[in-house]
């Protein structure tokens, strides 16, 4: 019979780590602002390394600043199993998006260590670099580079709003972690498991504890730049203006109408909108805004995504517009075998569960094309996420770790 690693999960320590990690970048309103590659994230990474070292984990980092904490298996030469998520947050992030998966991974390894059993394969917790894509777009950079989806040179050139590049910030993080073991990108791995808060309302509404994630929905993102001309607010006549804000607002309105669906299944968001020079007495010269479009049908994502540029061009008025596609990720389904293991482990523990898809994106998307990958969800209050109000319960957090720990130990025992 498979050993019950879950009996050794320390729920108190799990909660303590979650709350302590949330202290790095804590906001006044109870949330977390820990942007990718920021000083807050550097400090949080150091805490994770210290917590792992307490029970013998070895820390390593790769050139994309993905951070690995390794529990050595009985056969260390075998490719390890990864338990990954992220610890960067949105600017108004909560305590648990991403952080839960990393801390849950650590708690699962702590339970294995406490059991006195050793897995056949090594198991590593991974904090993937820049999942959120809020400071540097698009997101999931670390997992994309690790799995060969994107090139390190390409992401290194991306800059944040302040002009700071991924390259500069990677150098800062890697310099801070120069005493850690250095790993190559894309080393062979046996599988990837990610625990995450649901970020939606279904588990809570159904009163279930564990979500067996069936797959991840499709997503396309774009950057739209509207170029007009700066002019004096007091002297320039309306007929002569090339007001970038007026054109951008027309585009936003036209996009809302073109992408609107009666069934309310399309997710369409303009979450970033910036006006330059953003001065009260200057006609706006330039507007940059983001488009985030999601649906679980590839055809819908493609068709609606193809409209973005056409609609923006038709609403541009006297301004110029450039629409740059940033990301296209089709919907995917996780392998049935891993989903069955999550389902069975939850059933053995007597936890209620249901299958459900993930409309939110995760690093597991890119790992899916690289190695056998699966995800499990725990409920979050009101389905609220990417918000300082994000909330979970200690008992759900512990339940998720119990499932994760048992599945991880099982998978790490596989040939
Ligand atoms: C991930 O944070 C997403 O935006 O889906
Ligand atoms: Mn996340
Ligand atoms: Mn997120």
Summarize this structure as a short list of keywords or feature phrases.
415 residues; alpha/beta; Aminopeptidase; Alpha-Beta Plaits; 2 domains; 10-stranded mixed β-sheet; 5-stranded antiparallel β-sheet; 12 helices; 34% helix; 22% strand; globular; binds glyoxylic acid; binds manganese (II) ion
Write up what this structure looks like.
With 415 residues, the protein is an alpha/beta fold. The protein has two domains: 5-217 and 331-412, Zn peptidases (Aminopeptidase); 218-329, 2-Layer Sandwich (Alpha-Beta Plaits), CATH 3.30.70. It is 34% helix and 22% strand. The strands form three sheets. Strands 1, 2, 3, 4, 5, 6, 7, 15, 16 and 17 form a ten-stranded mixed sheet that branches. The longest helix is centred in the C-terminal third of the chain and has 19 residues, at 394-412. It is globular. The mean pLDDT is 97. The site of glyoxylic acid has 3 residues, from loops.
Number of domains: 2
| Share of β-strand residues | 15-25%
Question: What percent of residues adopt helix (DSSP H or I)?
Answer: 25-40%
Question: What top-tier CATH class of the largest domain fits best?
Answer: Alpha Beta
CATH topology of the largest domain: Aminopeptidase
Within CATH, the superfamily of the largest domain carries the name Zn peptidases
* Count of separate DSSP helical elements: 12
Would you report the number of β strands? Answer: 17
CATH architecture of the largest domain: 3-Layer(aba) Sandwich
User: What is the overall silhouette?
Assistant: globular
**Heterogens:** glyoxylic acid, manganese (II) ion
The biggest sheet, with number of strands, parallel, antiparallel or mixed sense and barrel status, is: 10 strands, mixed
